[in-house]
Amino acid sequence: MTYPGTPSRRESFQKLSPPRSGISWADYLEGFHERQPGITEDVLCLATAQGLNPYSWIAEPLPQTGAVLDLACGSAPTAGCFARGRWVGTDRSPGELARAARGGAGPLVRADATALPFATGAFDGVVCSMAIMLLQPLDAVLTEIRRVLVTGGIGVFMLPGSRPLRVADLLHYLQLMIAVRRTHLAYPNDRLLIRSEGVFHRAGFELVADERLRFEYTFGDEEATRRFVNSLYLPAVPDARVADASRRAAGWVGERMGIPLRRMMVRAA
């Protein structure tokens, strides 16, 4: 899940890998989503800004007609944003796809983002929520997205942001990072996405918009606080530290937390 604090360009790539651990990001993510499928969506579906949740926000710029591919669809929270028959979901995680199927979403296809089993130009739009900062190698993923999009088709990506936030939000995040002994959370593609226009251009896209919005999540009870902490990607952080973060968050019942998100829109050239 998301946490503000994208590293600077001067930080080494090694800081973007799980520290002091032999596990790869791919293996970490596979285990994370098999253990708790849909947890990211469970948090973000309850976050709101300007009358929208993040999935309504990411679906807004997509075409009103034609087929839409949801890449790394998770438990399929965007499926309900489109008329039946327009949406196709794909993900690598069997657990996420199983939860999506239980919710009635479909069609669903298990596939890798670098080798999508769809014809060239099969889609008018592609949506990718909370995954573009993780999918590797990014250039290959974007090239494959471009291949399955029609010329002029729209791609929309949602990923963690670092702003806007309020002082109270920053204090909450600081407490969590102290508990897990991190300065910030980082993702494999952070450096590439700092100057994203060139990355998209190489893959055959024009960057149309790069927007940021603060969504608000309410800690209605202790379960809501645990869910938020457990949704964070914390590779190589011992369970005891995650439990400490949950104990700190348990005192926030009744409070609200800002979640800063970034929405990037591209057009297939």
Structure description:
- The chain is of the alpha/beta class.
- The protein has one domain: 3-Layer(aba) Sandwich (Rossmann fold).
- The protein has ten helices and seven strands.
- Strand 2 (87-91), helix 4 (94-102) and strand 3 (108-110) form a beta-alpha-beta unit.
- Helix 6 runs antiparallel to helix 10 and helix 9 runs antiparallel to helix 10 (239-249).
Number of strands: 7
Average pLDDT for all residues: 91
Radius of gyration: 18 Å
Count helical runs.
10
What is the H level of CATH, i.e. the homologous superfamily?
Vaccinia Virus protein VP39
What's the helix and strand layout?
Blueprint: H1 25-35, H2 39-44, H3 54-59, E1 68-71, E2 87-91, H4 94-102, E3 108-110, E4 123-129, H5 138-148, E5 149-160, H6 167-180, H7 190-194, H8 196-202, E6 205-218, H9 222-230, H10 239-249, E7 256-268
Parallel strand pairs: 1-2, 1-4, 2-3, 4-5
Antiparallel strand pairs: 5-7, 6-7
